[in-house]
Amino acid sequence: MDSILVFLSNIAWWGWLLLVLIIVAIRDIFFQNSHTISHNFPIVGHLRYWLESIGPEMRQYFVANNREELPFNRIERGWIYASAKKENNYEGFGTDRDIYAHQHIFINNAMMPYELPKNHPNTFDHCFLPCAKVMGEFNKRKRPYRPASVINVSAMSFGSLSAKAVESLNIGVKIAGAYHNTGEGGLSPYHKNGGDVVFHFGTGYFGVRAKDGGFSMEKLVNLVETNPFIRAIEIKLSQGAKPGKGGVLPGAKITKQIAEIRGVEVGKDVLSPPNHKAFSNVPEMVDFIEKIAEATGLPVGIKAAIGKLEQWEELANIMLSTGKGPDFITVDGGEGGTGAAPPSFADHVSLPWVYGFSDLYRLFKNKGLSERIVFIGSGKLGFPAKAAMAFAMGADCINVAREAMMSIGCIQAQICHTNRCPAGIATQKKWTQNGINVPLKSERLAQYFKTFRKEFIEITHAAGYEHPCEFKMSDIEINVDDHNLSKELHRTYMYEKTIVPFKGMQHLKDCKYLGGKN
Ligand SMILES: Cc1cc2nc3c(=O)[nH]c(=O)nc-3n(C[C@H](O)[C@H](O)[C@H](O)COP(=O)(O)O)c2cc1C
Hints:
The chain is of the alpha/beta class and 518 residues long. It contains 19 helices and 13 strands. The protein has helices at 2-9, 13-31, 36-40, 44-63, 74-84, 121-124, 163-176, 217-226, 256-262, 282-296, 310-322, 343-348, 353-366, 384-393, 402-407, 430-433, 438-462, 489-493, 505-509, and strands at residues 105-107, 151-153, 179-181, 196-201, 230-236, 247-249, 270-272, 300-305, 328-332, 374-378, 397-400, 476-478, 487-488. It has an eight-stranded parallel β-sheet. The radius of gyration is 26 Å and the shape is globular. The protein starts with a helix and ends in a 9-residue tail after the last helix.
C-alpha cells in the first residue's frame, strides 16, 4: 500500500494532467456519440462548447458597443441602474446616438418651457405624476381607481419571479405610489406588502381557478373582499412575447406553496390553454367583464398584443351600442418580454408596440370611445422620451416589466426560462434569491420610478405642458429620413389623439379615487 502511495506521490503535476486528458479523449471518442465535434476533435472540441457558452457575456462586456445590444442596450441599462441607485444618470459630451437614424424620436420643445406656478403640486414633489384618467369612472364602477403613478409594474407572476423579487417590487411600488400587476400566478403573500395591486389572470385562472380548471367568480370575489389593496382586475387575452400560445406548468415545479397560491394540485402538470373557458367570443367577453365588475365593484380591463383588428372592431361596436366594456386596455408590444417563449413567437407573432397601439387607438378614437378607456402601454417604454411618444399617441399609463427587473438587479442574462437567473430574480433557487436585499432593492425600484417621473415631467415642461396627457401627435416627430421627410406622429400613424380632459395637477392630487390612499 505504502509503495503505491509513494509511486502516486512521485507522479509530476503534468503527469496527472496528461492522465485526465487521456481519459477525456477516450470518453470523447469511444463512450459518447451525441457530439460529433468532440468525437472528431477530442479534447479541443470542448473548447468550442465552452467558448460558445460564455459568448453572450463576452460580447456584452467587451465587444458590443453602447447602443448595439437587444432587448436593452448598455446605455439603456446603465440609465436604469443609475436612476435606481440615485446616481449620476447624465451623459457627457453629447449624445452617442445616431440621431439621424431611421425611427429616431424627436420631441418638439417649446420656445419657452412650462413654468410651475406658485404652490403647484410639483413644487413640493418633483415626482408627483398620477394618471390623468380614472379607471372605471365612465362605467360607474363602485370603486373607481386613479393610478397615482403613470409608471407601474407590469404583469410578472410569482413563479416566473422569485419570492424576494416579488416582495421587493411590491414594497417598491408602495414607496413610489405606483401599482403592482400580479401576473398570471395568482396573489401570493409577497404581493401583500402594502402596494396597490392589479390582479391579473389568464386562461389558467390561477388564484381564481375552479376544480374543473375554469374560472371561479366566488374565489375572485372572496379574493377582492379579503384584499382591499386590489384596485383593478386585468384579464389577459394575450401578451406580446407569445400571443395565442398556451403553456404547461410542469408538475415538478408545483411546490406546496405554488399549488396553494395558484389553486392547483401539487406535482401535477397544469395546462394554460390558448383560449379562455369563461368566454368564447367578443359579446361573451363583454358580459364576463361586466359580471366581474358588478361582483367586485372594481374596474376591469383586458391585456392583449395586437395583430388583426376585426374582433377589436366588434368590441368597439358592442361598447358603442351597449355602453359597456373594459375600463382599461393594456396594449403589449411584440417586443415584450416573458419568462419563456418559443423564438418564432417572440420574434414574429403580433405587431411592435407603435404599430399595434396606433392601429388599436385609431379604431377606438374613430368610434368616439377613446375618452372612456384608460390606455396602458407596455413594451420597452420605461424611458421618459419613449413614454412621451406613447402619451402623444394616446397612452395614459406605462407598465414596465424588464425595466423594473433591471432596477432591482437583473443583468439581462436572458436565461429566465432556465431557473438559473444569476441575480436571483427569475428563479426559484433559494441560494441565488438569498443575494437579494429586499429593503435595498425595493428602494431601488421606487427610486427608478421617481427618477423616471421626474425626467418625464421635465420633458413635458420642455414641450410647454404641465402633464404628459397634454402631448399631441404633432409634438413628436419620427425620423423616416431627411427632416423634410421626417413626419409628425399624426402624419405617420394617420390619426389625431383625443385630448384628455385635464384640469391641472392639483385637481388630480385632490381626487378621491387617487391610488395609494388606504
Ligand atoms: C419574467 C416575465 C414574466 C412575465 N409574465 C407575464 C404574465 O404573467 N402575464 C402577462 O400578461 N405578461 C407577462 N409578462 C410580460 C410583461 O408583463 C410585459 O407585458 C412585457 O415584458 C413588456 O414590458 P417590458 O418591455 O417593460 O418588459 C412577463 C414578462 C417577464 C419579463
